């Protein structure tokens, strides 16, 4: 699928950031409107994030716990709404994605730790927002009883109050 890169997660979370990989991502950014989706395959904790939205003045987007194709579609769709349509996404917002997912936006606490390629390409000051999804019963990962057949969903930041102060 165009714009989807599968990079296996190495032993003990190590990353092999070779120049070839970085150059392929940069080429993909040029080819795909200045940003791409990076998928990190992990048997128990897969995640995906955008690379290049930071260069447009908005935070990168991240989603955890979904397969590559779903992650790619969600991030591309919401990324295009931000870039092409001028939509705003901020912490504590709720997003009803195609009547399929209810998502809450959470600011990622340490984007440079989790979005390694984005930090290498866009700089260490990269900001990111996680799109946290509710399970099929409308429960969030921080609520008792959250469970989903898709697997685990680490939340990489702290929820913000609504409305924002």
From TrEMBL:
<dbReference type="InterPro" id="IPR025358">
    <property type="entry name" value="DUF4262"/>
</dbReference>
<protein>
    <submittedName>
        <fullName>DUF4262 domain-containing protein</fullName>
    </submittedName>
</protein>
<dbReference type="Pfam" id="PF14081">
    <property type="entry name" value="DUF4262"/>
</dbReference>
């Amino acid at each position: 699928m165009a714009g989807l890169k599968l990079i296996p997660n190495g032993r003990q979370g190590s990353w092999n950031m070779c120049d070839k990989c970085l150059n392929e991502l940069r080429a993909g950014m040029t080819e795909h409107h200045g940003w791409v989706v990076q998928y990190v395959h992990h048997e128990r904790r897969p995640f995906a994030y955008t690379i290049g939205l930071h260069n447009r003045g908005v935070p990168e987007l991240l989603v955890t716990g979904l397969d590559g194709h779903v992650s790619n579609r969600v991030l591309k769709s919401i990324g295009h709404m931000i870039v092409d349509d001028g939509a705003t996404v901020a912490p504590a917002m709720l997003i009803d994605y195609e009547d399929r997912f209810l998502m809450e936006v959470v600011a990622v606490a340490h984007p440079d730790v989790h979005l390694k390629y984005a930090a290498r390409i866009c700089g260490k000051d990269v900001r990111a927002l996680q799109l946290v999804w509710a399970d099929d019963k409308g429960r969030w990962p921080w609520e008792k009883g959250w469970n989903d057949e898709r697997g685990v969903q680490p939340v990489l930041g702290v929820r913000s109050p609504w409305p924002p102060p």
